[in-house]
Structure formats: structure tokens, C-alpha cells
Write a structure and sequence with these properties.
- The protein has a single domain, classed as 2-Layer Sandwich (Double Stranded RNA Binding Domain), CATH 3.30.160.
- The protein has 4 helices and 3 strands.
- It has helices at 5-22, 59-64, 69-82, 89-98; strands at 27-33, 38-46, 49-57.
- Strand 2 and strand 3 (49-57) form a beta hairpin.
- It is globular, with a radius of gyration of 16 Å.
- The protein starts with a helix and ends in a 5-residue tail after the last helix.
């Protein structure tokens, strides 16, 4: 199947919305069509630097996640398991609160 620029933007927007909902602290991502399905490549901050995670994505489920709560919940659960090592915004905030000013 040939994907238009508008299709690619819709898929990217859907993936971005889910990643934002996961609350990751710092990340870069790309999502691209592959032969059978789509692939999400995520580079995210973790405790000791950056890591890259690549996973297949059901594009129909991803697009449905924009309007279907069940589809969104299913992807959020699956992705949160895959990105457990990635730092979340809450991790950074709790570390900042626990820091002691020694100056």
C-alpha cells in the first residue's frame, strides 16, 4: 500500500499523542511503514543515558486510538511495558524534590 504524506502525519500524530500520555521525560521517535506492518523506533532517556526501543505497531489500532478508548488503553498498556526503563517526567520531579542544596 502506498501511504500519502497526510497518512504518515496522522500516524505520527497518533503515536505522539500516546507517547505524551505515557509521560516520558525526554524522547525522540519515528514511525515508519514496513513490509507487513509499521515500526515505532523510540530513543528515550533512562537512568544512565539513552536507549533505543523498536517495536512493531498495528497501524489500524494506532489510528483507532485517537477516538477509541479501548484501543488507546490497549496500546498504552503495551507500550508502557516496553518503555519501563525510560525516565518519566514524574521521576525527574521527584529527584529534584529529593535533591539537597549544599551551597
Amino acid at each position: 500500500m502506498v501511504w500519502s504524506g497526510a497518512d504518515l502525519q496522522r500516524v505520527t500524530d497518533a503515536a505522539g499523542a500516546l507517547l505524551e500520555e505515557l509521560g516520558l521525560d525526554a524522547y525522540l521517535f519515528a514511525i515508519e511503514p514496513r513490509e507487513d506492518d509499521w515500526e515505532l523506533k523510540l530513543e528515550c532517556a533512562f537512568k544512565d543515558g539513552w536507549q533505543t526501543v523498536t517495536l512493531p505497531v498495528d497501524v489500524e489500532l494506532l489510528l483507532a486510538s485517537r477516538t477509541d478508548n479501548a484501543a488507546r488503553a490497549r496500546l498504552l498498556q503495551s507500550w508502557s511495558c516496553r518503555f519501563t526503563a525510560c525516565l518519566k517526567s514524574a521521576d525527574r520531579e521527584s529527584n529534584a524534590e529529593g535533591a539537597v542544596d549544599t551551597a
